[in-house]
Specification:
Helices cover 31% and strands 19% of the residues. With 474 residues, the protein is an alpha/beta fold.
Length: 474
Amino acid sequence: MIQRKPASVVARFPASTKFFVLDTNVLMHDPTSLFRFEEHDIYIPMATLEELDNNKNGVSEVARNARQASRYLDELISHADSNIVDGIALELHGDKSATGRLFLQTEAINGDLPARLASGKADNQIIGVVRHLQDIHPKRDVILVSKDINMRIKARALGLAAEDYFNDKVLEDTDLLYTGTRALPHDFWDKHGRDMESWQQGGHTYYRVRGPLCPSLLVNQFVFLEDEKPFYAQVREVSGKTAILQTLKDYGHHRHNVWGVTARNREQDFALNVLMNPEIDFVTLLGQAGTGKTLLTLAAGLTQTLENKTYSEIIMTRVTVPVGEDIGFLPGTEEEKMNPWMGALEDNLDVLNKTDDEAGEWGRAATRDLIRSRIKVKSLNFMRGRTFINKYLIIDEAQNLTPKQMKTLITRAGPGTKVVCLGNIAQIDTPYLTEGSSGITYVVDRMKGWAHSGHVTLARGERSRLADYAAEAL
């Protein structure tokens, strides 16, 4: 609990640096937040330490983060030379970007709060600390940082500055998120076709173009020109003002169907091109409900597993919210316990199984059994330490994963494994995750432009006219 600072200590703080008071949920969301405030100072109230202690037990992501935050604090305090009251240099951790100091509450603080706010509640104790710090540091900005919306509202209602924790956000505006596609201007060929070279290889036509648009293109990005004769291509190489474009396979034509499925729109065609490409190890598909993410992914997986023998089996996992909690002690295998979460898999397999009209009832039953034997349903809880070799790994509902969990899953991939992440960032169910800080937003942004990854944002719903109208009208 914190002794009042002597005048000399208060005076030596530069007024330009801010004082950030961290709520517990910030540390439990991102333990490294301690080192994300650059030159500014941070303050940890005793109520925050108490709540960290209360949440440290268990195997959930929150419990792991609480333990990691406590380890960071212990490391800083054990290496501190000066008195804790004067603050501990955050640089002691080895992160040179954090040049501020860490302050811990070392004395009882009875903040002057309205009588209606219960003094025993941890949130109100933290708000009281913020008010007290504002009183003794009138020339500094004292700001509460919390992921709790209601706590920020209460703080602002009392005239205190409060902010969300933004440092984990990949993008401020998800409208800026990479879509994987780009419309070419109508004068593209006029400006880029002067010294164009073209050749054919492996059933594709390649164009080497030069011009002002080329430096802004990314490898494996899909480009299109909707004209009298539509032009669809994928960027294969970018070097300065030169780019190589490769024409696509038309999966909209029934001749190129994938397990009986054909692309119904431009983006689905792009998605099948990236899913069926053995050179691409990592695929992300974003889109609203009904855009065909799971159906296209399963169709491509079954074709490459059962027909082409590229992969030995399909592994499907889905985020069960809350993530990382126990899947139960009732009798049953891991797969049986995951079945209630796998309705989407069952629905899509029903559709894929009906694509073969000539097989008859017995043939379809045999196909269904064969498919079942090649699709394994796994829980995320037991992924740590595993390595998947020659597998087609599908991570459904990936918008509910944190960047750290996403990294844990993707790094399970061994030689010959393809990882496909599916998600809809408009349907996030995990507390404190937003469109900007979701794990799928993180990987789309970080993996773009890599030669072995591809991304497509599916735009149009293809479920039914009722579903499409309801999505717009309701």
